[in-house]
Design goal:
heterodimer; A: about 325 residues; alpha/beta; Alpha-Beta Plaits; 2 domains; six-stranded mixed beta sheet; 14 strands; B: about 270 residues; mainly alpha; binds adenosine-5'-diphosphate; binds magnesium ion
């Protein structure tokens, strides 16, 4: 197997903030790696190092077989980057933006123009091609920015939070576009805060938090690591959620999480429908009304909660959580 | 990296900046409007007081080269503000991730700002002609006067390019530049003859490069009436030479500094 991206022990500090604390990554050619983590986890720092924009304090990296530190220009010839914020020039039209990038890749005047038109068509921007990008919606800018990363048809692509800030419709559009690219054999490193996005697009997921890798594997492996199914119950009376928890906890294989304002209780279980029936019977006997009940496979949200002890959106006490995971792994 | 592809990359970037001037003509309107206002205000408000016998005509002729110098120096802040904006919007990151010449973004930027200055000088010359300014030398010398202004502005552009890569926002570039540029352009012979300044200010003004550009342009346009006593100090007696020396030194220092900062820059 050949690797499109190989990074070893990347470290980057900003003053006393350690943005990356020894990160290793390997991405086989033609696959998609999802780099998943909350805000401030170190995703952008990692992308910036691999795309030659930032020098690490320690560590080595190779992209498309070229050493990032020794030959940054060689790397730049083989990658496309769409950064966290769409870097389109809003005074230029969509066409002019892409044509400019083609020229800077030294494709030549004719090829640059052709490629720009091709990409505008592919990204359904042909109607807006000759309007200044200032007039584009957020989703259109994002697509134009992504098109910019593809001008030279690079074998390795980096997308830093490609759907953050998009409305649901534009997000689904973007997913389709990305799936199309991946089907064409491009190696992709994608960062995201959205667990469903990594689940949908990535072959392999690396979860990072506070600059460290806290878990990695396929979506299924991560889910397995967190245990099997989840029992998800919403009780009718918010005052009785605690009581329901005490009652049902012996049936689970891990602690139940209660969200009082949603009157819900979430608990890992094993045993499928039998557990479900048993739980309902006990609640019925105790006279606790149930509004909604379900058995579902863990989402990556659950993965994150289990691994770090906090949801993907917030990041208090993460240091402790990392220790727990480490112990759990031994 | 061949020089040729560095030049062609620079041209691509310059073209991009010029498209912006075309798309946002307000930008050019406002960079020329304030100097036009300056010409009119100084010419008609101060003119009469400074030049009582001539009814202001001689002062207006004296003034124009000063306003030209001040305007092109202020114009250099556009270089810095434009770059700071590109850093902020992540456009510099995009450029830095491309296999292009690393110096092209700055050479392209400073070049398009020369074009901007040419446009501004044309508009201002026309206004000057309307209020009674005249070129009293040959076309070649006059061209030399304009070139001197442009070369000096080009050097200052590189200082601003460095500032633009260094500080986090276009607003900061503007404010920082104004703090430095105001005294530089006012403690000079731009608006008043130097013999009116008190001792230390006068010494500063005599060695201020802005005075030298102004003096050089005035000489090359023929705007120094016969019988005017010669200026004091070596710099103002060799204004063209002194200006060019300044330009070369500034370029030698700030071209490498700005380029190094470009390579280090990061979007925030
Ligand atoms: N230029 C910088 N200066 C100082 N701290 C920074 C800088 N860039 C990132 N950081 C810090 O490094 C950490 C990781 O940031 P980043 O890689 O942007 O995270 P993510 O992309 O996962 O949100 C954060 O704590 C952030 O505040
Ligand atoms: Mg980020």
């Amino acid at each position: 197997m050949t690797y499109a991206i190989q990074a070893r022990d990347l470290v980057k500090r900003y003053g006393d903030v350690t943005a990356l604390d020894g990160v290793d990554l390997t991405v086989p050619t033609g696959t998609v790696l999802g780099l998943l983590g909350p805000n401030g986890a170190g995703k952008t720092t990692c992308v910036r190092i691999l795309t030659t924009l930032l020098r690490p304090d320690a560590g080595t990296a190779e992209v498309a077989g070229v050493d990032v530190l020794a030959d940054p220009r060689g790397v730049r010839q083989r990658i496309g980057l769409s950064g966290q914020y769409a870097a389109v020039d809003e005074y230029l039209t969509g066409f002019e933006n892409l044509d400019m990038i083609g020229r800077l890749y030294h494709l030549g005047a004719r090829r640059s123009r052709e490629r720009a038109r091709e990409l505008l068509r592919q990204f359904r921007l042909d109607d807006a091609a000759d309007r200044p990008a200032k007039t584009y919606s957020g989703g259109m800018r994002r697509r134009l920015d992504l098109a910019g990363a593809l001008v030279a048809s690079p074998p390795v692509l980096f997308l830093d939070e490609p759907t953050t800030g998009l409305d649901p419709r534009s997000r689904t559009d973007m997913w389709e576009v990305i799936q199309g690219l991946v089907a064409g054999g491009t190696t992709l490193l994608l960062t995201t805060q959205y667990l469903e996005e990594a689940d949908l697009l990535a072959d392999e997921i690396v979860v990072i938090d506070h600059g460290r890798i806290i878990a990695q594997g396929t979506a299924d492996q991560l889910k397995a690591q967190v245990g099997g199914e989840r029992l998800d119950i919403t009780v009718a009376d918010p005052a009785r959620v605690g009581e329901a928890k005490r009652l049902l906890e012996p049936l689970g294989v891990g602690p139940a999480v209660v969200e009082e304002h949603r009157r819900s209780l979430l608990m890992p279980v094993s045993g499928g429908a039998a557990v479900l029936i048993n739980a309902l019977r006990q609640l019925d006997v105790a006279g606790i009304g149930v509004d909604d009940v379900g058995l579902r496979r863990p989402t990556l949200d659950d993965v994150f909660l289990t691994l770090t002890g906090h949801a993907a959106e917030e990041s208090e006490n993460a240091g402790e959580a990392v220790e727990q995971v480490r112990e759990g792994a031994r | 990296m061949s020089v040729l592809s560095a030049l062609s990359d620079g041209a691509v970037i310059a073209k991009r900046n010029l498209i912006k001037i075309k798309r946002v003509p307000d930008l050019l309107v406002f960079t020329t409007l304030s100097p036009i206002m300056f010409v009119l205000l100084f010419a008609y408000v101060f003119g009469g007081a400074i030049d009582q016998q001539g009814g202001g005509q001689a002062y207006r002729e004296f003034l124009i080269a000063g306003i030209f110098a001040q305007t092109v120096v202020f114009g250099a802040t556009i270089t810095g503000a434009g770059l700071a904006e590109d850093v902020k919007k992540g456009i510099i990151d995009r450029f830095r991730s491309l296999p292009m010449s690393p110096s092209a973004v700055l050479t392209g930027r400073t070049f398009s700002d020369v074009v901007n200055n040419v446009l501004v000088l044309i508009v201002m010359s026309l206004t000057g002609l309307l209020v009674g300014w005249r070129i009293r030398t040959s076309a070649l010398e006059a061209l030399g006067g304009f070139l001197l202004l442009l070369v000096f502005a080009y050097a200052i552009s590189w200082v601003m390019a460095w500032v633009g890569m260094l500080v986090p926002s276009p607003e900061v570039v503007n404010n920082a530049a104004f703090i430095v540029i105001f005294p530089l352009t006012f403690v000079a012979n731009t608006f008043v003859p130097l013999n009116t300044l008190p001792g230390p200010l006068r010494t500063f003004a005599e060695w201020n490069p802005v005075s030298a550009v102004t003096q050089g342009a005035r000489e090359l346009f023929g705007n120094i009436p016969p019988g005017t006593p010669p200026p004091t100090g070596w710099a103002l007696n060799h204004p063209v030479m002194y200006t060019l020396i300044w330009a070369v030194v500034v370029l030698a220092v700030f071209v490498p500094l700005a380029n190094a900062q470009y390579r280090r820059s990061a979007s925030r």
